[in-house]
Amino acid sequence: MNTAHTSAASLIEVQDLQVGFRIGHEVQPAVHGVSFAIPANTTVALVGESGSGKSVSAMSIVRLLPGNAVVGAGSRVLYEGRDLLALSGQQMRQLRGKEISFVFQEPMSSLNPVLSVGEQIAEVLRLHMGLSARQARERALDLLNEVGIPQARARLNSYPHELSGGQQQRVMIAMAIACEPKLLIADEPTTALDVTVQRQILDLLAALQQRQRMSMLFISHDLALVGEIASQVVVMREGQVREAGSVESIFSAPRDAYTQALLACRPRLDSRPMRLPVIDDVMQGGQAPTEQRAPRAMQGPALIEVHGLCKTYRLKDGWLRRKNIEAVKPASFSLHRGRTLGLVGESGSGKTTIGMMLTRLTDATAGSILFEGQDLVRLASSGLRSYRRRIQIIFQNPYASLNPRFTVGQILLEPMRIHRIGASDDDRTRLALSWLDRVGLPAQAFGKYPHEFSGGQRQRIAIARCLTLQPEVIVCDESVSALDVSVQATVLNLLLDLQDEFGLCYLFISHDLAVVKYMADNILVMNDGEIVEHGDAQEVYSNPQHPYTRQLLAAIPRGYGWHAGGAQAESAPANEIAPLVRQE
User: What angle do the packed helices 485-502 and 455-467 form, to 10 degrees?
Assistant: First the structure.
């Protein structure tokens, strides 16, 4: 049995938890004898990669496992002395939401789209607290104010789709704390959020935990993130606890090789090694690379020059009125062969719109995109095919960007047929198999479907699809943001290897500033559709000139202990973060 801090004073004790899922006539194990405790008034973090058993362990506490789940007979989840696994469904419903609450990763799939925010919060209060409709509405207003929703009274009548991602997550937190629970479980609550919004949510959760004196189970794949919010850490892999201890001991002296590997995989702000360590290398005793990677030299004229690029959307504003939204204000920059231009900013800043205009998936309102002298903005659709081959894009979500009805072979062969690459299907098949090999996938993948692969493998398929056209420019639009840190490191190493070999030019779009610093030679910082800072990557990070850039850098998770000593001097003052809370 894996043991992690059991104590008589604990609010929750998970003992010898074993969970499997029935598939056909077999039960596939997911969690193997996991034990850990959550002390009262304490934040405990569950950390590990996708498939490690984190969410299954958390769902077992609140009894929200799917119908095909099988819980081992010896498993126990003790809450104030009661075994939650032995309670009836009615007893669990009385606890769930009132004494134990859950904040899920994706608020849009958790909030009811046809009920207003106020109705959803009030429903929890009426159900568990017995409040009248009027009392519940007033309490819902207080909760929206408590979690920092601007114009809270007006937002009571808003629907989830009318709120930003950060505001949706704040509403989820308001619902979770409505009944002042003793335990709050937060499952990857900041994974899809911008770094500044992520910082706000972390600060909010920490403040609520202290103010309401509740315990919190915080689930994440990012050790740097949990190092700033948790007191104790439980590291899981393949359904087992690998290491557990105080956050200080985990960060300063990790004992398990897997914990060391998780810490090593994350790009650092103070170094830029030739390659990022990956899990298997570290666990097999490999040494982290010490040689630093210098920015690539700028050789020859720019491959693409962008001048005054703009995008304005004209939207309805009432029955007869229209209003203009400037998604991108005049933007100018250049892309060079063999170099990476990083593009950073919050959601809504215009990053993706620039990438879509560059690939002509969105038409620009004004400006020019000169590709070896040819203006792509004014190029007719009939003349775009040859340029579409030379400029490709890797989207953020490999689950949505791959056709689920196509095999991997069909996904790779289709663009080659369209652009007449290869003399025959046999030639194209050989090329497709060679690209699968280059991105680290076996030949057997050719006949499989996307759903048979992990997220990291799907992103490799998306990269292979781009490379079949032998492009010169690739737009990477948040292409690693949804991946575990270990898979992320593998994909980033692959992108760098391909750039070295083929002289590829990347426009690397991301809200993760640590990743951008590792990848980029130059950086553009965008805010509200405008480029507010542009320069050498190292210079922008070490000496940011614009207040907004300093706000972004101050919000980067740095792990346990970064607040101490000189690290604090590198971050922006607290009063520079405040505008972001008001503008969200």
Answer: 10
Distance (Å, whole) CA 211 – CA 215: 11
Mean pLDDT by 10 residues, the chain (584 residues): 53 95 90 94 91 91 93 94 93 92 83 94 93 94 89 90 83 91 90 77 88 91 85 94 94 90 84 84 70 78 94 78 86 95 88 93 94 91 84 84 93 93 92 90 93 83 91 91 80 90 93 88 93 93 92 81 37 32 35
Q: What is the residue whose two structure tokens read 């009548």?
A: 157
Token pair belonging to 99? 């004494």
Per-residue confidence (pLDDT) for residue 572, from 0 to 100: 35
Instruction: Give me the pLDDT at residue 192, please.
Output: 64
Distance (Å, rounded) from C-alpha 445 to C-alpha 508?
27
Give dist(CA 19, CA 51) in Å, integer.
Answer: 13
Instruction: Classify residue 569 by its DSSP letter.
Output: G
Question: What pLDDT sits at residue 78?
Answer: 96
Contact 44, 218 (CB under 8 A): yes
Per-residue DSSP letter, 273: B
Q: Hey, is 434 helix, strand or coil?
A: helix
Question: What is the CA 324 to chain-centroid distance, rounded?
Answer: 31
Q: Which two tokens stand for residue 425?
A: 């299907």
Are β-strands 340-344 and 522-527 bridged in parallel, bridged antiparallel, or unpaired? Answer: parallel
Question: Residue 522: how many CB atoms within 10 A of its CB?
Answer: 22
**Residue among 519, 562, 513 nearest 541 (CA):** 513
Residue 180, SS3? coil
Query: How many Å separate Cα 515 from the centre of its chain?
Result: 12
Cα–Cα dist 266/150, whole Å: 34
- To which residue do tokens 């922008």 refer? 540
* Domain definitions of the chain by residue range: 259-292, 304-543
- Span 84-136, pLDDT tens digits: 999 999 999 999 989 999 998 777 778 999 999 999 999 999 999 999 999 99
**Number of residues that this document lists for the chain:** 584
Cα Rg of the chain, angstroms: 25
> Distance (Å, rounded) from C-alpha 184 to C-alpha 217?
6
Q: What is the CATH number of domain 304-543?
A: 3.40.50.300
- How many angstroms separate the Cα of 486 from the Cα of each of 38, 52, 142, 280, 311? 27, 13, 41, 9, 36
CA-to-CA distance for 78 and 70, rounded, in angstroms?
Answer: 18
- String of DSSP letters for 491-552: HHHHHHHHHHHH--EEEEEES-HHHHHHH-SEEEEEETTEEEEEEEHHHHHHS--SHHHHHH
The token pair at 420 is 């007449």
Q: What is the pLDDT of residue 577?
A: 29
